[in-house]
Amino acid sequence: MSGYYEYKLTVSSGEATLVGHVHFVDYLRWQGRCRELFLKTEVPALLEDDVRLHALKAECEYFSEIMAHDELSVRMRLEEITRTQIQFTFDYVKTRDGKETLAARGRQRVACFRGAEGEAVVSTVPACLRDALLPYAETPIATPATRSA
């Protein structure tokens, strides 16, 4: 398995319920935050383009609770890329005393669009984004240069 893009955080008390565990919606928020930080740090030119990524589907499976003040690593990988869509996976890993525990696993599918709000049309995944994502692929993904005829 190839590498992953990592977003590290310490869970704040504001992200927890009154009894101290994280609400399910925060997992989806962290998916978006991880993806956006990837775009900002790895593909900054894309932010100046009129390409937008619209989430089509997001999901999360929970294995153990994440609590306020937990050290968390959200690890994003590329699962699939098509002409117009990208599917990511996210591992939510708690770290305590040097030990890692997989707390949840999520998935998000996005589509590329271009154009003004309300007039946007589906677009191909820009080459710069595809190239930036390939090192984070779960399995090798064929590119135009590596596909057989």
Q: What features would you describe in this structure?
A:
This is Acyl-CoA thioesterase. It comes from Actinokineospora xionganensis. It holds the Pfam family 4HBT_2. The chain is built from 3 helices and 6 strands, in the order E-H-H-E-E-E-E-E-H. It is an alpha+beta fold and 149 residues long. Strands 1, 2, 3, 4, 5 and 6 form a 6-stranded antiparallel β-sheet that branches. The longest helix is centred in the first third of the chain and has 19 residues, at 24-42. It starts with a strand and ends in a 16-residue tail after the last helix.
The string of secondary-structure elements, in order, is EHHEEEEEH
Termini gap: 26 Å
Q: Give the count of helical stretches.
A: 3
Shape: globular
* Biggest β-sheet strands, sense, barrel: 6 strands, antiparallel
Q: Uncertain runs with pLDDT below 50, 5 residues or more?
A: 144-149
Pfam family, one: 4HBT_2
Protein name: Acyl-CoA thioesterase
How is the topology of this model organized?
Blueprint: E1 5-10, H1 24-42, H2 44-48, E2 51-62, E3 71-81, E4 85-96, E5 99-114, E6 121-122, H3 127-133
Antiparallel strand pairs: 1-3, 2-5, 3-4, 4-5, 5-6
Offer a concise description of the structure:
InterPro entries: HotDog_dom_sf. The protein is α+β, with helices and mostly antiparallel strands and about 150 residues long.
